[in-house]
Design a protein that fits this description.
Length: 228
C-alpha cells in the first residue's frame, strides 16, 4: 500500500528508471487478464454464459489485485513523480482559458478512432464504453461490476475504460481540440493528473504515432451485444 506514503514502491526514487512515455506502466500480468476477459465476452455473445462466467471466475483474484494496483499506484503516480523530480512550476500558455473544457461525445469518438482505441501514453488497449456497459448490463453478474467507487469496479474496466486527456492541461491554457487531446487509460489519465508532460518527466504522446494493430475497442461487437 503506497497511498499516503512518501515513496511509491512501484515507481521508486530513481528518475533514471522512470518510464519516459507514461506515468507508470501497467504490470505485465494485466494483459493476459484482459485477453481472458475478451474471451469471456465472446463466449457470452456466442450464447455460452456458463463458459463466460467460468472465464471471469478464473481471473477474479488477479483482477481484484490490479484494481488495488490502480488505486494504490496507477492513479497517483504523477504526484509521486513530481515529488521526486521537483520540476519548476509550469507557465500558463494562454491568458484566457478555453471556455470549452469538457470533450463532446462526437470529439471523444473522433479521438478514440484516430488513436485506434489505444492509450497514447502507455499503449494499452481500450474498450468502447458502450460495449463495456452493455456487457455489464446484459451479463448481470457479481463477477462483472461497474460500481460508483473504484473498489466496486472490475479490474479490467479500470484497465480499459477510455478517457480523453488534455496533453497541455486545460488549467494552463490547453485547448479542447484534437491537436491537444489523446486517448488515455484510467491509470495514465489520473496518474498524469493536471501536470504537464514535462512536470512528470514523460514525452509528449503526440510526438509518436498511435498504435494501429487492428484493435477497434470491440466496436464490432456492439450490435451483437445489443441483440442479446
Amino acid at each position: 500500500m503506497c497511498r499516503g506514503k512518501k515513496v511509491c514502491s512501484e515507481l521508486g526514487t530513481d528518475p533514471a528508471k522512470f518510464d519516459k512515455e507514461c506515468p507508470l506502466r501497467q504490470p505485465v500480468w494485466i494483459e493476459p487478464c484482459i485477453n481472458t476477459f475478451i474471451e469471456a465476452l465472446e463466449s457470452f455473445i456466442a450464447g455460452r454464459r456458463t463458459d463466460c462466467l467460468d472465464l471471469l471466475q478464473s481471473i477474479h483474484d488477479q483482477e481484484r489485485a490490479f484494481t488495488e494496483w490502480y488505486i494504490e499506484h496507477g492513479q497517483i503516480s504523477g504526484n509521486y513523480r513530481v515529488r521526486v523530480l521537483q520540476p519548476p512550476p509550469p507557465q500558463q500558455i494562454a491568458e484566457m482559458l478555453d471556455p470549452v473544457r469538457n470533450v463532446s461525445k462526437a470529439l471523444q469518438n473522433q479521438i478514440l478512432q484516430r488513436d485506434h482505441y489505444h492509450c497514447r501514453y502507455c499503449g494499452c488497449r481500450l474498450i468502447d464504453r458502450k460495449v463495456m456497459q452493455a456487457f455489464v448490463d446484459k451479463l448481470a453478474s457479481p463477477l462483472l461490476t461497474r460500481g460508483r467507487k473504484n473498489v466496486e469496479k472490475h479490474g479490467v474496466i479500470l484497465a480499459t475504460w477510455p478517457y480523453i486527456d488534455h496533453v497541455v492541461p486545460h488549467s494552463l491554457g490547453g485547448r479542447t481540440e484534437a491537436d491537444n487531446l489523446v486517448s488515455s487509460c484510467y491509470s495514465c489519465n489520473f496518474g498524469k493528473d493536471s501536470y504537464t508532460c514535462e512536470e512528470v518527466g514523460i514525452a509528449n504522446p503526440l510526438s509518436r504515432a498511435p498504435i494501429n494493430d487492428g484493435w477497434d475497442g470491440l466496436l464490432a461487437r456492439r450490435q451483437a451485444l445489443k441483440r442479446l
